[in-house]
UniProtKB/TrEMBL annotation:
Gene3D superfamilies cross-referenced by the UniProt entry: Clc chloride channel (1.10.3080.10)
Record SUPFAM superfamilies: Clc chloride channel
Name the record gives this protein: Chloride channel protein
PANTHER family found in the cross-reference section: CHLORIDE CHANNEL PROTEIN CLC-E (PTHR43427), CHLORIDE TRANSPORTER (PTHR43427:SF12)
A Pfam family that the UniProt record links to this protein: Voltage_CLC
Source organism per UniProt: Candidatus Choladousia intestinavium
An example Gene Ontology molecular-function term: chloride transmembrane transporter activity
Transmembrane segments: 25-48, 60-81, 102-121, 154-177, 189-212, 224-247, 268-287, 328-345, 352-375, 387-405
């Protein structure tokens, strides 16, 4: 008679399956914590260096006149590292979806070139650089530990989340963004635990080392009524149009630069001269750098009406010419300034309009509604939640298939339950 101690084959299978799951959990706990610590440290250093060069630019206004030379220096750095055809954040996104190779040299290059851009007054953000930093280092760690291709993709997403969280201080949005941005309509949930742990670890380390999160106060959030909901929906719809215009301007400006100015050194020099000329014509340094210091003014209702248009042109002229940085923080500036303009025209509270504007434009340019909702909570608090929810819904639907990143794919239609699998425009 067979012993009762003998396990049934199904029991063996069940034990093996659970053992494999436990091993996977512990593996990703270890590697995500490692990624969060290492990339969080790099991201924090990047954060503090950006603050230093921004302070230097503010103390020495004459540095703006060196912007054309700074552009030439950036092109030279990419040339000596043999990375003239740099695809930036697009390369990181395509590496996750198609396995394209990310060179480790991307990390020091984007670090230095973004600092140069900000030091001399180029109009750019920092999150694009953070995504490239994190993606490059995450990919390097995946190769270092001899992971297979699928696990390397998760490490890239881990790195993106960790760097975004360290630099901007929004761990919820950072954890989700790297899973949501690659293929719109499909979330890479296999990376959920690694991205969450890496994001939180990097944020805690950054906070310990003095990196302050971005927070904007929204005074006097009005109660949600039919009329205020309608105004929020209208503002979100208008911001969707603004986001499409912003993306189109960025892509078309880059195309025009490359079409009319073949030499990358000359392209960067002329681009720097154009940004310098525009700075002198406006008589304001408001549009140089990331522009985050101006956003509180928009929440108070004191922004200039043309600010959102000028910031779009400053950023397009900077990024299109070959300067490095990102477009997400400029999109915050654009959204907040347009929301402020809407508030002044419609006689609405400027704080909530600026917050809705920021959320809407961010959602429109990234095509990431869940990230947009989470980042609104982390930037503005939960009191205005219904307005941010309305903003995300209408902006996502009405912004069409425009986007900051050519490497991003739209898997499902925004209007029907159809699988379309197309690139953003």
């Amino acid at each position: 008679m067979e012993s009762n101690s003998t396990l049934h084959p199904s029991s063996n299978f069940f034990l093996r399956q659970n053992a494999e799951r436990l091993f996977t959990v512990f593996k990703w706990i270890l590697f995500s914590l490692l990624s969060g610590l290492f990339i969080g440290l790099v991201g924090t250093a990047f954060y503090h260096c950006l603050n230093l060069v921004t302070d230097a630019r503010n103390h020495f206004p004459w540095l703006i006149f060196l912007l054309p030379a700074g552009g030439v220096l950036i092109v030279f750095l990419y040339h000596i590292f043999r990375d003239e055809n740099d695809k930036g954040t697009n390369l990181v996104l395509t590496a996750i979806s198609s396995g394209e190779r990310i060179p480790f040299r991307m990390a020091p290059l984007i670090f230095l070139s973004t600092l140069i851009t900000h030091l001399f007054g180029g109009s750019a953000g920092r999150e694009g650089a953070a995504l490239q930093l994190g993606g490059s280092i995450g990919n390097f760690l995946g190769k270092l530990f001899r992971m297979d291709e699928k696990d390397q993709h998760i490490m890239i997403m881990c790195g993106m989340s960790a760097a975004f969280s360290a630099v901007f201080g929004t761990p919820m949005a950072a954890a989700v963004f790297s899973m949501e941005v690659v293929t719109v309509g499909i979330m890479h949930y296999s990376a959920l635990v690694p991205c969450v742990l890496a994001s939180l670890t990097a944020r805690e380390l950054a906070a310990f080392l003095g990196a302050a999160p971005e927070v904007f106060t929204v005074p006097a959030v009005p109660s949600l009524t039919l009329s205020t909901a309608a105004l929020a929906a209208l503002l979100a719809a208008l911001c969707a149009v603004v986001s499409v215009l912003f993306c189109t301007l960025l892509h078309q400006t880059e195309h025009a630069y490359r079409h009319f100015i073949k030499n990358p050194y000359l392209r960067a020099f002329i681009g720097g001269c154009l940004v310098l000329l525009l700075t002198l014509l406006t008589g304001s340094r408001l549009y140089n750098g990331s522009g985050t210091s101006a956003i509180p003014d928009f929440f108070a209702g004191s922004g200039r009406p043309e600010a959102f248009i000028l910031k779009m042109f400053f950023t397009a002229l900077t990024i299109g010419a070959g300067f490095k940085g990102g477009e997400i923080v400029p999109s915050f500036f654009v959204g907040a300034s347009f929301g402020c303009l809407f508030a002044n025209l419609a006689d609405c509270p400027p704080g909530i309009c600026a917050a809705v504007g920021m959320t809407s434009v961010f959602c429109g340019v990234t095509n990431c509604p869940i990230t947009s909702l989470l980042i609104s909570f982390e930037l503005f608090g939960y009191e205005g939640m219904p307005y941010y929810l309305i903003a995300v819904a209408f902006s996502y639907m009405l912004s069409g298939y425009a986007g900051l990143y050519r490497g991003q794919k739209i898997a499902y239609s925004k209007f029907k339950t159809n699988y379309i699998n197309r690139q953003t425009k």
